[in-house]
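PROTEIN–LIGAND DATA SHEET

This sheet pairs a single protein chain with one bound small molecule, zinc ion, given as SMILES. Inputs appear in the order they were entered. The predicted three-dimensional arrangement of chain and ligand is reported afterwards as a token string under its own label.
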Amino acid sequence: MLAFEYRSTIGQDSHRFVDRLNRPATAEELARPLLLGGFVIPSATGLAGNSDADVILHALTNAVSGLTGVNILGKISDQMCLEQGITDSRAYLERALQDLGDWHITHLSLTIEGKRPHLSAWIDSIRESIAQIIGIGPRDIGITATTGEGLTDFGRGDGLQVFCILTARRVDQT
Ligand SMILES: [Zn+2]
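PREDICTION REPORTED AS:
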């Protein structure tokens, strides 16, 4: 009988909005789009970072690293970004997915904390975008967003924080 082994892993990431840096933002920074899960949120302030600062894809990449044991964000993504000029966070995620082996991602649950922008109108678009990148159905991705009621810097509008729980399975090898 076919039996499956399951694992759940967590990833987290956060970024500051370009208009909440500890210094004045450059014109280039102020023109950055807000990318969430590879989807551009229209008319929203962007997040600061060396890469495209896609906080959802970074949390997801960290969750994949939690499964594979190969950390991508940090040394490897810095090499890709600073030495090869790759700022598209999809490339970091795809690099992480290369180490999946026989694990198949079956579900993602994401939580976003931030005061702005209001995301409810874009949640389905973000789900579709992540689904295409990962190769699972949008129904296998849940996303909730909370304002945090001003209790944290995210809740006060300084940036966004994302947690991602990833569930994966493989055929039991014992
Ligand atoms: Zn990040």
